[in-house]
């Protein structure tokens, strides 16, 4: 699929290496995305538009004005010291990735500030719909490890695409699992740890809180 990545990147004064580093990919992969040799899905569009400081629509617009890219060049380089920040709450509750933490405890926590450009790599939801939580257990290993921080987008709460990772309440326990809607109306609950067998939730047993859109790992 044709796109405007190279045009906007050049107008913004960025090299392929700069953009590849900004979106966390290889130079070879970025080249494929620019040429249309690799499918440009929504996640790539959001990451690239945030790094270039343009709207997602500009990436794939048929008649894109390169002057727009040049006028937004001052937004390309993003640092944590800039004023484009969002306040996001970190909930004290620990969503279980195994035995689970129970949901009948107060949901309170501190508020942290993050670069809006960084957050927009993962979601366009307003800050009021986002929160951070800590996973516990190893059932989602190696994708999510014990004590990893996950960013949850509560504006997404309908499981329309199979096998994405969601935060949910199953019975009285908070869980982070891959969910797959089944033809009979049930939802298959799956772990990335192959030693943990899947479960199936039926009507009223599963309440989706939001989709896990990012994982933050302490090094």
UniProtKB/TrEMBL annotation:
Residues 5-59 form the HTH cro/C1-type domain. Gene3D superfamilies: lambda repressor-like DNA-binding domains (1.10.260.40), Umud Fragment, subunit A (2.10.109.10). Transmembrane segments: none annotated. GO terms for molecular function: DNA binding. It comes from the Bacteria. Keywords: DNA-binding, Transcription, Transcription regulation. InterPro entries: Cro/C1-type_HTH (IPR001387), Lambda_DNA-bd_dom_sf (IPR010982), LexA-like (IPR039418), LexA/Signal_pep-like_sf (IPR036286), Peptidase_S24_S26A/B/C (IPR015927). Pfam families: HTH_3, Peptidase_S24. Coiled coil: none annotated. This is HTH cro/C1-type domain-containing protein. It comes from Sphingobium cupriresistens LL01.
